[in-house]
Predict the 3D structure of the following.
Amino acid sequence: MSTIIEFKNVDKIYNSGNHILKAMDNVNFKINKGEFVIILGPSGAGKSTLLNLLGGLDTLTSGEIIVNGNHVEKFSDNQLTGYRAKNVGFIFQFYNLIPNLTALENIELMKDIADVNINGLDVLDSVGLKDHANQFPAQLSGGEQQRVSIARAVAKQPTMLLCDEPTGALDSKTGVLILKLLQDMSNNKETTVIIVTHNAILAEAADKVIRIKNGQIESISVNDNPKKVTELEW
C-alpha cells in the first residue's frame, strides 16, 4: 500500500486571552491509500481538529500535512478551495443537505463544485436510494438523509472521505448500514475512509486505529484481519 496522508510534527494552538489550548500537540502518523481508519478518543481529545486540518477547513500552527505528495499547509486560499472540492468528501453527523433541493439535486450540485461528470441517479442507486431521487430531505428518514449525504460526498470521486461521527444521530441498525457502505467503499473502490468517533467497538473493523488523547497520539495499531462491520457486536 502507498502512503497517501502524512502528518509530521503537527501542532494546532488556540489562544484565548491568557489561555493557550494545544488542540494538536506534535502529532505524527501515516495513512495508506484505501485504508479504513478509525480515529478514537474522548470528547475534547482533538479528533475533530485533526479532521478539520486534514480537510483544509482549518490551518495548523506548525508542522506538515502531506496528501498525495502535496504540502497542504503551504496551499494558498485558492489551492485549498480546489483541494477541498476535488480531494475531500465530508460526511457529518447532521447530514447538511439543502432542504429545498431534492435528493438528486443535492447530489448533482457537486457538478458545479468539483467540475466532474456526475450521474446523480447512478450515485443514488449505489446507496440504494434511486427510487427516492425526487424526494426532499424532510420526506426522508434520518438514515436515508445520511445515505444521500454519503452519495453527495462520493459523487465527486474524492481521494478520501472524512467522516465526523457519521452515525451519531442514527439508531444502531441504520448506523450499521451506513458503516457497511463506508467500509465497502474502502474495500471495493480504494477510497481512503477516515472516521472520527468515540465508539471503541468500531476499532475491530478498522484497517488502522489511531487513538488520541489531549491532542496527542496515544497509540496507533493495525488490524491484519479486520472484521466486517456487520460482524461487530453492538
About this structure: The chain has one domain: 35-63+75-231. The chain has seven helices and ten strands. Helices lie at 47-54, 77-87, 103-108, 110-114, 120-126, 142-155, 172-189.
